Amino acid sequence: MSKIGSLMMLLPHLIIIYLLFYNMQSLTGNRQYFGVSINQDYIDKEEFKSLSKEYKKLLNIGFLSIFLICLFFIFILDKASFAFTFFILSAISYNFLVYIRIHNKTKDLKNKLLETCKDCDINISSKSIIDVKFINEKDKIIKKFKYIYLIPIFIIVIISIFTFINYPKISNMVPIHWNFMGIADGFIEKSYINIIFLILAQFALSILLSFISLSSIKSRVRVDPENIEQSRLDNIKYLNKIGYTFLVVIFSINLIIINSLMASIYGPNLNIAVSILTFLVTILSTIYLIFTYVKSPNSKYTSSYSPDDDENYWILGSIYNNPNDPSFMVQKRFGIGWTINIATPLGKIFLVATILLLIWLFFDFINSFFY
Length: 371
Known about the structure:
Shape: globular
Order of helices and strands: HHEEHHHHHEEHHHEEEEH
Mean pLDDT: 82
Strand content: 5-15%
Distance between the termini: 17 Å
Radius of gyration: 23 Å
Oligomer: single chain
Structural class: mainly alpha
Largest sheet: 2 strands, antiparallel
Number of strands: 8
Strand order of the largest sheet: 1-2
Helix content: 55-70%
Low-confidence stretches: none
C-alpha cells in the first residue's frame, strides 16, 4: 500500500478517536464531572468550565503532536503499520494522563468549595432506592440472555469442528494475520498443535465476548426516585437494547473469526466482501451501543445513589476498588462503558491478565519497529 493510502487508512481512525475523547465528558452523563461526583448546579460555574476548556486544549495539542509523529513514521521511516499502532496506543495513553490531571484539579476545586462554603450542597444526592419489581424483571432478562449468548458460542464450536475435519485441505503455511486489504501477511507452519491453538483462541474470544456482554447487563442499574414506575420501564427497555446490540456485535466479530478460519482452509486471503460487511456492522452496532449507553436512565442526575457513586473507592477516578461491593462490573465515571471492580476475586484475575497483556503488547509494539 502507498504512503498516501496508509495515511488515508489512518485518518478515519484518528478523527473518530479524537471526537470521542474530545466529547468524553458530554458522553459521561450528569452525575460526575471528570470522575468527581458533583451537584449538577455547580458544574455550570466558571471554575469548573475552565477545567473542561483546559482538558480540550491539552487534547488538541497532544493529538496534533501525535499526528505529526505518525506522518514522520509513514513518510520518512516508511513504517505505516507501526504508525497506526503508535497512534492508537499514544492517543489512549495521552488522554488518560490528561484526564488524571483534570480529575485531580476537579477534586481539589470541589474540596476547596466545601472548605469555604459549609452550606454548599455540592455533593450528589445520597438517596438509595431498592425496587424489588425491577430486580425480578432484571433477573428474567439476565436469564434470557444467558441462553441467547450460547448461540454464537455454539456456532463457533461448529465452525471449529469443520476446520479440524478439513485439516488435510489446509496449506503448509497457515495465515494468521492480514493487512487492510485482506491479504495474508503473517503465517505459521501447519501442525495439529497450531491449528488446535488457533481454534481454542477463537473459541476463548467468543466466550470472553459473551461473558463481558452478560456482565454489562448484570451491572448495577439506578432507579429514579422521582418517577419509579417510568424509571423501571425505561431501565427494562435499556437492558434489552444493550443485550441485543451486544448480540449483533458478537455475531459480527464471530463472522470475522469464521472468515479467518475459512481463509486457513480455502485462503490464504480473507473474503473482502465479508470483511467489509462485518466491519460496517461492527461499527454501526458499536455506534448504536454508545448512543444507547449515553441515553441510559442511569445517566440522569436524579437517579438513585449506589455504592460506586462514592469517589473514595475510585483510584485516579478510573479504577474501581470497593471490597464492600460484590458487583464485578460498574459503569465508568468518565467515558463510555463499564469497568471492573478490582476488589472482587474475578476482578483481581482480570486486572492481572490486563497488566500481562499490556506488557506483552508493549514489547510486541517495540519489536514491530525493527521488523
